[in-house]
Design the sequence.
């Protein structure tokens, strides 16, 4: 069995991006390779002109009586945690070619944390025999 | 280790259904068996009278400044991609018996792409030793 | 390969909590250890003062023409299903230390179904070599 942790990262809100980043950083700190495929709203969140802005919270945050992030949603350090993950270990971040096309995003406008673009087949091959999450 | 890809498909928006379908098609193209359990809103999306309608987009799509699907949300080819996946390989789509009951859906009103209904135990046994995603 | 089923439980709506609980109960009934990490809105749902209230439904439920839970959203027995899962087998529910901090939640205010708090590393180690879901 492979110890690679693979993540299809679809969601674009700060809380879910943060959850993905902390899992990536945790795995990298354990010397596990990490393989991330950015789809749809996560891909959109990594556009250079958007990456530093407030990505908001998941729908679940809006229900009455919910706790709120103590320091505000904009303070959730998802981008810094991805940067740290890449410093800690072997973390590859791929833009999904199909999602680039559906959303009309040019891969050259993405943040430099994104290593390359590729398709599902490339992702599934890198994920082979290891744990996979959809976030 | 089993090379079956198993997906608990819970979400009912076109973008997440499409993400699931492309993963299923990609795995089927690699000759991997695919095992899908439809729960809640994904199950609802497969009702015959709903399956061809616009399923909308995930909550994340609504944040200010987001990219939009170039050809519109209704154009996201999730159903065609599931059809293609089933033509490419061994893809089983099961309606979750518990979700049928919670939502009061009669299994005979589902699209013919759905092969059968079954419970969590059936799904977990088919998934044994392979990769599992919750979408 | 380990037969532990691990779940990062992030979502806090009754339907997704129920999906997680039924998977946990199904795995426990098959004598598989279950390892759950509560993050963000799932963690918030387990606060003692909130756990018995209506947690609402996922965003997907709100689209026009959707089926509705026959007995109402408040009737979805997610908490009872988690209780049953713990009676059926070895089910550990951990509060994510990072999410406790982000949301300013004191671990002593959580429902007694939550066994302990811990970090990502603890979770990933318990999950090693088994199936993992993000819900």
Sequence:
């Amino acid at each position: 069995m492979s110890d690679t942790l693979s993540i299809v990262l679809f969601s674009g809100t700060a809380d879910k991006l943060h959850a993905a980043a902390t899992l990536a950083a945790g795995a990298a700190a354990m010397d596990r390779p990490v393989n991330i495929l950015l789809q749809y709203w996560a891909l959109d969140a990594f556009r250079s002109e958007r990456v530093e802005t407030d990505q908001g919270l998941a729908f679940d945050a809006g229900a009455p009586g919910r706790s709120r992030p103590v320091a505000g949603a904009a303070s959730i350090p998802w981008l810094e945690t991805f940067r740290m993950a890449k410093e800690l270990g072997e973390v590859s971040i791929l833009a999904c070619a199909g999602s680039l096309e559906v959303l009309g995003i040019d891969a050259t406008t993405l943040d430099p944390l994104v290593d390359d673009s590729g398709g599902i087949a490339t992702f599934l091959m890198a994920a082979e025999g290891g744990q996979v999450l959809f976030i």
Summary: The mean pLDDT of chain B is 97.
